[in-house]
Amino acid sequence: MSEWLVLTIAMASACAVVLTIAVLSNRRVAEDDDPSETPDVIEYMTMMIGVVYAIVLGLAIAGVWEGRSAAQESVRLEAQALHEVSARASVYPVEVRDRIRADVDAYVAHVVGDEWRSMTDHASLTDEGTRLLDRVRADVTEYEPRTDLEGQAYQPLVDQVAAVDDARGARGQNAGATMPGVVWFGLITGAVVTVGLIFTLQIRRTFRELLLAGLFSVLIAFLLFLIWDFDAPFGRGISATTAPFIDLFPHATGG
């Protein structure tokens, strides 16, 4: 059973139960009942729907912001691990050290250029990036240490390459949108209902009431746009950046 079918059944069932109870309750109302003594249920329901929707919006914004922060952190960890590989390779012979650093620079240049565009446009990593990282791994793991100092540096270098691979995998997982379609359905439906409830309160055409209604609608639209913008950590305006790579490898990125 799909999640959309489950959602439809749950919503229809809840609505049917509430309406049934309301109809049965009205049939039992006595003839001398005075509805003026009951608080205005419309205002109460409007307030509660607004509060519930505000909570949902807050949770959605917090979720996509956390995803964006995690994406930026994965970029920082990847860049820092690559920097450690370049720095720790200084104990190796010149030809080995230069080969490792050249391959690291080639990988960084590819990530900042082609792979970043691939994540932005297609929400995926590139095969070329995988190949370049495999070359860095081969440079590190296939070298046989010849001195005690090289032996001491070997395992930390291997660990740093593994950290790069792990951070790159996290970067790839964070490249796409994080909000499921059913959540977007709830957010948009909630926005329509919340804004539509304004008209149940007999809004008039005074400047003050129209201004407040307009500002309320603009606020809802802005918050939905904010969620949409944060939902793709690498693909839209307020997204994760290549700053960690540029800061640590200015010569490789042209920074």
From TrEMBL:
Keywords, alphabetical: Membrane, Transmembrane, Transmembrane helix
InterPro entries: DUF4239 (IPR025333)
Keyword Protein biosynthesis: no
Membrane spanning stretches: 6-24, 44-65, 182-203, 210-228
Lineage top rank: taxon: Bacteria
UniProt feature coiled coil, ranges: none
Name of the protein: DUF4239 domain-containing protein
Organism: Streptomyces silvae
